[in-house]
Amino acid sequence: MARVVLENLTKSFKGSRQETVDAVRDLNLTVEDKELLVLVGPSGCGKTTTLRLIAGLEEVSNGTISIDGQVVNDIAPKERDIAMVFQHHALYPHMTARENLAFGLKLRKHSRAEITQRVGEAAEMLGLADCLDRRPEALSGGQRQRVALGRALVRKPKVFLFDEPLSNLDAQMRVQMRREIAQLHTRLAATMIYVTHDQVEALTLGDRIAVMRGGALQQVAGPMDLYRRPANLFVAGFIGSPPMNFFQGTIVSDAGGLSFQEEGAPGFRLRVDGEMSPRLAGFAGKKVALGMRPEHIAEKAGADEASAGETIEALAGVVEPMGPETFLYAANGSHSFAARLRADFRVAAQQKVSLVFDMRQAHFFDPATEMAIAG
């Protein structure tokens, strides 16, 4: 089984002042056999370094990496039975697509018949059969990336590693290649680890997603669990487009139950949903952060069961028609936020608009620890 296990994995570098910098810090993560796991996070979070540690391109400072039950810390990259696809396809310009696909197999002394068979299978799978005799300069960007994928595919490795392979493609080609990688994973039933900074790629590709920040793992979960139940403020703000809105305030207790009172002037007050009240009871009188996804903010006129306890008045800012929906960027006092509204919604700039917050979908975070309280 091609199961990858990272235990207490740390990679340290020396900084410009000889200080120790941890690019990856005490990382514990298991990638199951035949799983497509996505490592996602902002630039500098340690995701590519983690991939390079698995590949053997970086030396481990502490901890262990196991592939298929074997610790590989001291095993050379070529002996780990992995194949890596990089951000830059790095094809040999003087070789045809066929020769690029076959090159690694020739180095490993495979027979000519086996090389011909594997190259043919990969070309058919990736739609490259008609351009095998072209050199990279005569291929489109998508075709070049397919050749790079094929070069890994013909190896039939235990684990595929992808380091932002689509970032140099245009938007339409990225969508197409994303589908092709997903289909490839289904057909091969192979273990894949995919690195990206694009959270849309992460949500659409991953069986599970591991979110990293500052070299540390923040949360590992399935795409919708990650979206609906973020573990902390960072994950909540990173996953989702437009990102989750955050409001700082205090939990207030009165005869009507618990409410969220936004800080600053004028500051709105929103009633806490009854199911969340028990989890927030210990925070009465304390500061919290309220998180609300744009799709859970609606225009009052079109909202179901709208109530005064969930409605605020705001000033409209930018309106972005997106076809099937409209994004409204509004402000209440000094705080701006985004709402995802119906397609035909229109409003003039600086016009007042009544918006309903669906408090059943609210997320609350402890500002001291940044961890989720309820939601």
Could you explain the architecture of this structure?
With 375 residues, the chain is α+β, with helices and mostly antiparallel strands. It has two domains: 235 residues, Rossmann fold, CATH 3.40.50; 130 residues, Nucleic acid-binding proteins (OB fold (Dihydrolipoamide Acetyltransferase, E2P)). It contains nine helices and 21 strands. The strands form four sheets. It has a six-stranded mixed sheet with strand order 6-7-8-3-9-10, with helices on both faces. The chain is elongated, with a radius of gyration of 25 Å. The two termini are 37 Å apart. The model has no long low-confidence stretch (mean pLDDT 91).
Any descriptors?
single chain, about 375 residues, alpha+beta, Rossmann fold, OB fold (Dihydrolipoamide Acetyltransferase, E2P), 2 domains, six-stranded mixed sheet, six-stranded antiparallel sheet, 9 helices, about 25% helix
Look at the structure and give the CATH class of the largest domain. Answer: Alpha Beta
Percentage of residues assigned to helices: 10-25%
What gross morphology would you assign? elongated
CATH architecture group name of the largest domain = 3-Layer(aba) Sandwich
| Protein structure class | alpha+beta
Assigned CATH superfamily of the largest domain: P-loop containing nucleotide triphosphate hydrolases
Strand residues, percent: 25-35%
- For the secondary structure, the number of strands is 21
The H/E string reads: EEEHEEEHHHEHEHEEHHEEEHEEEEEEEE
List low-pLDDT spans.
Answer: none
Q: Write down the CATH topology of the largest domain.
A: Rossmann fold
> For the terminal residues, how far apart are their CA atoms?
37 Å
The residue-averaged pLDDT reads 91
Rg result: 25 Å
* Assembly category: single chain
Overall number of domains = 2
Number of alpha- plus pi-helical segments: 9
**Major β-sheet profile:** 6 strands, mixed
Largest sheet strand order: 6-7-8-3-9-10
